[in-house]
Structure formats: C-alpha cells, structure tokens
Amino acid sequence: MSKTSINARLAMIQAFANFMDSGSQSATVIFYEGVQPASPAVVAEPDNALVTLVFPEPCIQETTATYVELHPADTATVIKTGTATWARVFNGAGEVAADLTVGADISLANTNLVLGGTLFIQSIKLRP
Q1: CA dihedral sign, ordered 59, 22, 28, 96
Q2: Is the pLDDT reported for residue 88 higher than 90?
Q3: 125 vs 11, 42, 50, CA distance in Å?
Q4: Contact predicate 126/71, CB 8 Å
Q5: Which of 47, 120, 122, 128 has CA 20 to 30 A from 63's CA?
Q6: Exposed (0-12), middle (13-18) or buried (19+): which is 80, by Cβ within 10 Å?
Q7: 3-state secondary structure the chain
Q8: Are the C-beta atoms of 89 and 126 separated by less than 8 Å?
C-alpha cells in the first residue's frame, strides 16, 4: 500500500470510529478457535465461537493520527473450551469491522480459554 498523508489517515480513522459506534447495539468482539476465514466477508463458523465481549457505548476511547483505541470491554464468560486463534470485531449494527489474528494483531495473556472462565480486553487499538 502506498503511504498516505497524516490528514488522509486521520480521515480514515475518524470514519472507522464513526462506523464502530453506528447502529443501535454496542460494538462487540468475538473470539474463535479454528481457521480464520479468508476475508471479513466470509461468515464465521458459529460453532467455533468461544466468547463474545461487549464494548461500552460509545466504544471509542481515543482517536489519534495512527490508531483508534476502544474502551475496555466488559468481562464475559467463555461459552466453549478452545484455543483462541482469531477474533472478529462488529460495530453496533452487527456489521463486521475487522478480523484480527491472535498473536499477530491482538494479544491475549492466555489463548487457551476454558468453559465458564472469563475474559476481558483491557486495551485494543485498531490501525487503518
């Protein structure tokens, strides 16, 4: 990708922030086990969902020249034992905002999630 100006990056980040808070629900992130789909347009296998975290509204904590930081997510209960390999972020309208690879795009203290355990996100920064 070519390099973009600071003003262009700011415009993209602000548009992304507006997209995340659109809709009548809260933005969410779902962690999955298994193979990540080829693109966010591919429906995720619902049986591979391990836990769904909900962000407060508005979900955007800070917008900078290089990233959008979301507020910490609520603590959620793990619904299935498995190893989190990827996550999908949804806006408040239930539209896919981003797919994240665990370990590369998003880090967890422990990727091995256990049924009945809890998970929360302290910080998540999304970069355009």
Answers
A1: negative
A2: yes
A3: 16, 23, 21
A4: no
A5: 120
A6: middle
A7: CCCCCHHHHHHHHHHHHHHHCCCCCCCEEEEECCCCCCCCCCCCCHHHEEEEEECCCCCEEEECCCCEEECCCCCEECCCCEECCEEEEECCCCCEEEEEEECCCECCCCCEECCCCEECCCCEEECC
A8: yes
Within 8 A by CB and 6+ apart from 3, the residues are none
CB 96 within 8 A of CB 36: no
Q: For residue 89, what are the CA distances in angstroms to 41, 80, 106, 113?
A: 12, 19, 11, 18
Average pLDDT over residues 105-109: 88
Let me know: does 120 contact 73? Beta carbons within 8 Å.
yes
| pTM for this entry | 0.88
Between residues 66 and 43, the one the model is more confident about: 43
Specify the higher pLDDT residue, 50 or 105: 50
Structure-block tokens of residue 69 = 């930081």
